[in-house]
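To: structure subgroup
Subject: Chain for Friday's discussion

All,

I'm putting the inputs and outputs inline so they're searchable in the archive.
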Amino acid sequence: MKRIKIKASAQFSAPAPLDGLFLPDLCNIRILLLVIVIAEMLAFILTLAGASSGQRWQDLGLISLFVQWVALFSVLSLCLMRPWLANFNNTLAGVISFILINVITLVLSEIAFSYIAYPGLDQSTAGHIDFLLRNLGISIIVSLLTLRYFFLQYQSSKSMLAENTSRIEALQSRIRPHFLFNSMNVIASLTRSNPKLAEQAIVNLSQIFRASLSDIKKQISLHEEISICKSYLQIETLRLGERLQVDWQIESGVEGDMIPALLLQPLIENAVIHGIEPLTEGGVILISAQHKMDKQTLELEVINPCDNLKDENKSTEKGNKIALNNIKQRLDAIYKGESSIVISQKNNQHTVTINIPINLLVGAG
């Protein structure tokens, strides 16, 4: 048995904000945890830089408390204000965010100076001003660096999204069914003998090409993809006749799932060209779709017979490679490592299994 698994490696990258705001989703629990960790690291730095060696670890608790409160209040405020900030351009939203963070720092600094007993803190007016200005200065530097980092991440994310969109578009532009000339020959032969059947073949062919030329940002339902595949199979049936048999096993409830266009069709095309066509007696292509992992994953599978794997292996793999690599790259660009393609051959059966997460948008992250 030969088994190959193709899975895109997951990479850490912030998804491009859908509302155009450069700030990430600060309501996200993972970002909140990251902010807490970074704030604690800043507290350690301030502790090590500010106090004498004998007093450092005594002061760490108070400094950590203050820094964490500033960080959490800032994150919470920006989280709640995000819908409002999204109405402005990123420059103005950045200025407002910068002012907000530093106002929060000043307010919490005033509260800390007035109500928290800090050993060795100068309680005079000069000491009060020095305490506020020192905290404000640190806050200005940290907030500028943080907001700049968010903006650069946003720009990078936008660039990656544009690159992935172009990449998917380029890949999809190469999806032109190889059966075009065969189909035209079949249609030409039917024009005189069976005009009605020829007309239906033209309709089927136009449906397939309409799908290949559609907007790459738009996903289609599995039901629509199956309709495209059936149009293709009807054309091939005109060539192969009863040699081509299809067994559809579609689980109830999966046809509404959204998938990239022309995901199944190239696999079925390979199954016909490299599986059914070389066989004198033909065979059955099994096409299945079902939910996996508590309905979080859609599994698509195409199984076709193979003739003498030892002889056909090279030509079959060569023919399949273009379509499979194309699909793999499209899924990689769309699902960011959350999809997989598994290819296996056993007992003269060639199987291709695709697993994709449900309800993810094209071009996300």
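Points worth raising on Friday:
Strands lie at 2-7, 220-221, 244-250, 258-259, 283-292, 297-305, 340-346, 349-357.
Residues 174-178+212-357 form a domain with the Heat Shock Protein 90 fold (CATH 3.30.565.10).

D.
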